[in-house]
């Protein structure tokens, strides 16, 4: 909280190369802070923090409207084409402590492509990676962000139909994070109304968690 009329939510985006992780961060911020383009190798090699402008009309508490600010930490992908798992983990862990060490983290967003369902090994590796970063309460502070939802829609799948036919691996992952998930349409993500819908869903997850934050301190192993 910067003041009594403003609320800040702190987010980190995690995911594989080419899942649209940095693009999702830009959509949440309503900006182009993070480099994002198709590439045969991992684009993001270090962590960077993006901050949104004040956003109105999104949240009310105790009958009063609050201005919202969003902070997003973009991270290198895991697996990474040029960094080891340990390098990615230590880089992200250090950045989380640096940027959110005092204020805490509200949500980690695991970014997956809706048009490329995860295999079991990929899901297991992602969960293990998040556990190492966030600790034993990771489930309370993790949500799944399904990008390229427009591709699934083009294939004739509504959100309900998509989940009905989703793999057991994805359904198990969603269940483990208490069904905290959001579909992000990459074609509409820059539209103000679409962004507002996504932010309200994120705020609902934060509210369900009683506005708790995860405090992260850097520790050398």
TrEMBL record:
Transmembrane segments: none annotated. Residues 6-221 form the AIG1-type G domain. One of its GO terms (molecular function) is GTP binding. Pfam families: AIG1. It comes from the Eukaryota. Keywords: GTP-binding, Nucleotide-binding. InterPro entries: G_AIG1, GIMA/IAN/Toc, P-loop_NTPase. PANTHER family: GTPASE IMAP FAMILY MEMBER GIMD1, GTPASE, IMAP FAMILY MEMBER-RELATED. Belongs to the TRAFAC class TrmE-Era-EngA-EngB-Septin-like GTPase superfamily. AIG1/Toc34/Toc159-like paraseptin GTPase family. IAN subfamily. This is GTPase IMAP family member GIMD1. It comes from Nyctibius bracteatus. The gene is Gimd1.
């Amino acid at each position: 909280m910067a003041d009594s009329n403003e609320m800040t939510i702190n987010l980190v985006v995690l995911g594989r190369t080419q899942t649209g992780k940095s693009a999702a961060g830009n959509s949440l911020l309503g900006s182009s802070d993070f480099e994002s383009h198709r590439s045969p190798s991992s684009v993001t090699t270090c962590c960077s923090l993006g901050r949104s402008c004040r956003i109105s009309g999104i949240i009310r508490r105790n009958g009063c409207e609050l201005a919202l600010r969003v902070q997003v930490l973009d991270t290198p992908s895991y697996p990474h084409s040029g960094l080891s798992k340990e390098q990615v983990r230590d880089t992200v862990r250090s950045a989380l402590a640096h940027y959110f060490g005092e204020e805490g983290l509200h949500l980690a967003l695991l970014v997956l492509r809706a048009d490329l369902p995860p295999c079991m090994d990929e899901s297991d590796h992602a969960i293990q990676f998040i556990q190492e970063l966030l600790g034993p309460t990771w489930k309370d502070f993790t949500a799944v962000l399904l990008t390229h939802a427009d591709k699934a829609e083009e294939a004739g799948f509504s959100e309900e139909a998509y989940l009905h036919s989703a793999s057991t691996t994805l359904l198990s992952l969603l269940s483990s994070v208490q069904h905290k998930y959001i579909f992000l349409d990459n074609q509409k993500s820059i539209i103000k109304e679409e962004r507002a819908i996504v932010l309200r869903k994120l705020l609902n997850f934060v509210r369900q968690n009683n506005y708790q934050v995860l405090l992260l301190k850097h520790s050398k192993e």
